Amino acid sequence: MGMSREVHKKLVDFQRNEITEYHIYRKIARTVSSRENRDILEKIAADELRHYEEWREYTGEDVGPSRFHVWAYCLLSRVLGFTFGVKLMERGEEAAQRGYEAIKSVVPDAERILREEDEHELELLRFLDEERLRYTGSIVLGLNDALVELTGALAGFTFALQNTKLIALTGSITGIAAALSMGSSEYLSTKTEKHVRSPGKAAVYTGGAYIMAVVVLILPYLVFDNVYSCLAFALAASVIIIALFNYYISVAKDEPFKSRFFEMAGLSLGVAAVTFAIGLVLRKFLGVEV
């Protein structure tokens, strides 16, 4: 073909990317119990292998996969769910697609492969149905309530009580009681609605998310001595939890990140500011010194 060394190198990189994703999809498919999800993943794997073989016709080389990427994405898929793993991987395709654009004039098949990556595979990914994502609403309920209520309570306790161990004790009791209450409420709410979600699992996801937030927010009060430093760390942890969770949802469910993040963060920090002020007023008004 008389292609330049630069184009040849790009084609080899595309080959490696395709064969890497082929192995990732195949390995993840073997771990999926749902027949429908497994068929979708195996179909995408077959597409990746076909693209690899098409690039090989141009390069004349056999290329091995990136073992690290195969290991990393398979591990990520086991921990955070296969939907998150494969969709995060597909987001990395954007840089590769810019490379496709650069060689379309040299390699006619590049445009067709790019179109298949953009349309066919992404369309197949939309049909993935992972059980844990059905309970996103329950997780949001638990996390949002914990972050809004507990950050607010900790802000109020911080100024009113002025003692890290006492704040940790009071916050823990408040948080655990609220987690049990939220879990039982979600159980009853889900049980009265006729849909595919299990009431028991919905309760566990809600209560578990609440407890996780409680542990993270209380931890600074068990480690540090200055109450205001503890509150700052708790608020920072709250924002980090919100950011990580919303990033997960934005990838796994193709939802916008910024609007959801700023909404949750604004509610959490706003309530904390109001309750901190309430704690200040009540402490002055009641003349309580701890």
3D structure, described in words:
By secondary structure, this protein is mostly helical. It folds into two domains: about 5-130, Ferritin; about 130-285, no CATH class. The protein has helices at about 5-30, 35-60, 65-80, 80-90, 95-105, 110-125, 135-160, 165-190, 200-225, 225-250, 260-285. Helix 1 (about 5-30) runs parallel beside helix 3 (about 65-80), helix 4 (about 80-90) crosses helix 10 (about 225-250) and helix 5 packs antiparallel against helix 6 (about 110-125). It is elongated, with a radius of gyration of 25 Å.
What are the defining features of this structure?
290 residues, mainly alpha, Ferritin, 2 domains, 11 helices, 0% strand
> Which class best fits the helix and strand makeup?
mainly alpha
Largest sheet: none
Taking the alpha carbons of the first and last residues, their distance comes to 83 Å
The helix/strand order is HHHHHHHHHHH
Strand content: under 5%
Shape: elongated
Total number of beta strands = 0
- How large is the count of helical segments? 11
Amount of helix: over 70%
Q: Would you identify the regions where 5 or more consecutive residues have pLDDT less than 50?
A: none
Radius of gyration: 25 Å
Rounded mean pLDDT score? 81
What count of structural domains?
2
